[in-house]
Design a protein that fits this description.
single chain, about 80 residues
Length: about 80
């Protein structure tokens, strides 16, 4: 069981580092002055956000965050 704990701890550390890097790569969500004047319209990039690089980063962040929570809970169990 100790080997499993070591393997899960290594995966947890890699997940923590990857989650930190992915969060730092994300762009800010500020709309700027265009949103104040009503100039924020949908563009090609906002319609296809799921297939863009930003969409991939958001999906990766969700996956890594869920993995983080699951690994933290599993590692907290005293077995």
């Amino acid at each position: 069981m100790e080997i499993l704990r070591i393997i899960l701890t290594v995966i947890f550390v890699i997940d923590c580092i990857a989650l930190t890097v992915i969060v730092l790569m994300q762009e800010g969500k500020s709309a700027g002055l265009g949103a104040i004047s009503g100039g924020a319209t949908e563009t090609f990039w906002s319609k296809n956000k799921g297939r863009s690089m930003e969409g991939t980063i958001v999906k990766s962040t969700k996956f890594l965050a869920i993995l983080f929570l699951v690994l933290a809970a599993v590692l907290n169990i005293n077995f």
